[in-house]
Amino acid sequence: xxxxxxxxxxxxxxAAYAVNGLLFVGLIAGGAVAAAKARENxxxxxxxxxxxxxxxxxxxxxxxxxxxxxxxxxxxLPLVMLLAASLATLGGVLAGIVRQRRRSLLDPEDSRRxxxx
Length: 117
Known about the structure:
The protein has helices at residues 2-8, 14-37, 42-48, 51-67, 76-99, 108-116.
């Protein structure tokens, strides 16, 4: 939704900056939530949250290119994909930092986990 809205808003306006800011915050928050909820592979879960954004970006770019005939930068799509994956990964890293807590060597819960592995 935000990617489509971002493509419809005129560039270099206050509305465009607001939409981009919301997209950035949304991707970071999505990556953070996915990483926090994942039991394993936290960063992979965070990166996969950017998948729908990437698919929507491809669709919007194709519509802009072939539908209205607007000029689309050749590197625009790869950069959007890289930015989406990077922001979601940042959210995953931030969630990992927040989630991490220091445990005592004598913590009985920690020793049970190590025996199960």
